[in-house]
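Field reference: sequence -> structure
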Amino acid sequence: MQGVIISFLIFVCFFNPHRMFSQNSDSLFNYTEELISIIEENKEVDLKNAAANITNIPSDLNKIEKYLYYSHAFHEVEFYSRIREMHYKWVDEAKNNKTVSLNITPAIILKQLIDIVKKEKGEEYLGYLMTPYLILVEVTGLSNSAYVIDRGHSARKERKIGQKDIQVRILEILKGKSIYSVDETLTISYLEHWYRESPPIKFEIGKKYLLPIAHWRDSDSKKGIDHRYSLRLNLFDDNTLVEIRDHKVFYPLVPSSNNGQNWKDYKQNISRKFFNNDY
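Structure field:
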């Protein structure tokens, strides 16, 4: 289950959004633009020494965290759309400019910046920082569908993979209050092969779960689906799947961690530990 976030950073694609998230959207997007600028300025970095040679990195770790937080919590779709566009731009430039190396890509430079935070704060902190939404939900329905991979010019243009869909009602929002509302209904999906470790994931109708959620970044854009409602489960560790029963916290994938912790105390602890910076 480790590494799910980074694999999505590099391999999946995005679509152009059309929703303004808040009245402060323009000012919030400044952080995303600054991060884009840092990546663009490092297109000629030697991959072998990328971590040491990336320039214009803020000396303040908190600044890098702000870049990653705003880019994912408020502008995830826009940000990765720009990363993808930048990649193709570099490919075109490399054809005529030998100093632009295709051994390093925008995603690789982004990963170097991510690793700076990971090294200092740990993977769990990074996971919560870069997960757009953390929402308490009640499961109202379960279904199966097919996730379609578009292979472009391949002889077999499409490949279908088993997908699980969870219909939910929002009960409480720990992260994502500017995007969603209590009592709103969503469908959150994941691919069957993603989480094969530990006990298998088993959601049940009527039960309550705290879920880390992110956006799908691919073919839904071609169908004109609003990206707010194109959501995927974003577990970055076994203990990030949390079930709430009788106001107590349980870990379905890590039963040994169950200690009957109170839900209110859990919320306070997780908010203080991961969301206490005034970004």
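Note: The two ends are 28 Å apart (CA to CA).
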